[in-house]
Structure formats: structure tokens, C-alpha cells
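Onboarding guide, step 5: your first structure request.
Type a short instruction followed by the sequence, for example:

Predict the 3D structure of this protein.
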Amino acid sequence: EALYAQGWKLEQLADGARLSGNLRVAGGPASSDVALSQVVRVADQKGVVELWLRGNLHSSLFDLQGLKKLKRLSLGGWEIQRNDVEEISRLPNLEALQLCDFGADALAPLQNSRRLTYLALNSAPSGSFRSLSKIPQLRWLGFYCEGRDRDRMAQQLDDVAQCQQLEILTLFRNGPTSDQLKPLQHATKLRMLALDFDGGPDVYDALAGIRTLRVLGLWSELDGIFPPKQIHAPLHERRPDIQFLHRWEDLPRNPIQELP
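The system replies with C-alpha cells like these:
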């Protein structure tokens, strides 16, 4: 059972009897905010391995360095900057990270995260993804494609294809085109892909060319469904070794719990 502290109120954070393994904190009015150092103190006392922070946080994330056992971290509610990510990258045991709002160049320090295997970017990032290709253990990446131009996304997926250990990729909002997907044909370990799908034989061609691909989920945002596999018969004929997903439940579970 997790403690959900509305407003970062100290008396709620101190209710350690309800805290077991993870901590959810949602910011409220500034007058009720608790310093991050107080959140870290309680979390460290209880051996928290997952921390979920939202809301009025305008101080440095330096205090997170006190959480040596932290494995999963979710941040949002303010624009995370490069200096914030530098602090995050120093967490020695961080395995999963979710960022909801961040600046264009904020992701670069993640290349120093030695144990990071899961990264979720819950907004449309801009700029290069080159630093992500240098995260040594990154196996699962998910991000939104909304609001990006064709050339930028093609370059970002080219960067993603350079991630040597990447096995699972999820792309949502505004399905990528054939040209944007083609760089993934150079990925060496990509075995599962889930994305918004706009249809078209050229997209099938690009997907068929990802030789390592074994599991595919093509989500129709317009219809709100994973289309029946007969819709994708042309691709299935070319790549019978690919398994099609038909339910969200078939995707691997997100290692970072969402707020109940």
C-alpha cells in the first residue's frame, strides 16, 4: 500500500505506518508544500524504492541523492531542466524513469545512468535523442509523437535505433510514416513495437524491414482499438514470424505504477 500525500503536507508524509515500498506525492498550494528534503527523509526511513512526484516543486533535486535504494522515479508538474536530470542520473540504483514535462536539452545527462532500463517520456520531446543511445542498459523506451515535424522524428528514431540494448519501443499520438520508421530497420535487438497506425502499404514495408521484430501492436487512435489481424494480412504474409497484439493487457506491464 502506498501513501498518497495530497499537497505534500508533512503530517501526511509522517504517516509512515501506511508506507510500504513506494510513495506518491502530489503538490498543492505553495503554502502547504513540504521541502523535498523532508520527502526524502521520510522515504529513506521507510526504504522507499519508488517515488512519484507531481506539482509545486521548484527547488533543486539534489536531495534525491539521499535515496540510495530508489529504483523507480516519476516526475511531472513543472518543466524539468538539464540540472534536474543531472541529479537524477546520479541515483545509483535507478532502473525506471518517467518524465512528464522537460526542456529540449534536458535528457542528455541520462547517458550517465548506468542501470536505467525503462524510460517513459509523457510529452512530445524536441531535440536530439543521441544521448539516449548512450544509456548502456536501456531496454524499453516510450514517448509521444504529438506535434513533431517529419524530419525531427526521423532523426530521433535514427538515434533510438542506435540504442544497443533496446528491445521494446512504444510510440503514441500521430502515427509515424514509413520514412520515419525506416531507421528502426538498423536496430539490433528491437523485438516489440507498439504505435499509432495510420495504415498504408508503405508503412507495412518499413515494418517488414525491421528484421528483429517479433511482436507488434498497431493501435488505431481513430477507432480506439487494436485492429483485427486480418487488416494487417499483407504484413502477416511477408512476416509470419510477427505476433500481433490485440489488447493493451498484452503489452508488458509499465514498471512505474500510475496514481490510483
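Each response can be followed by summary notes, for example: The first helix runs from residue 10 to 13.
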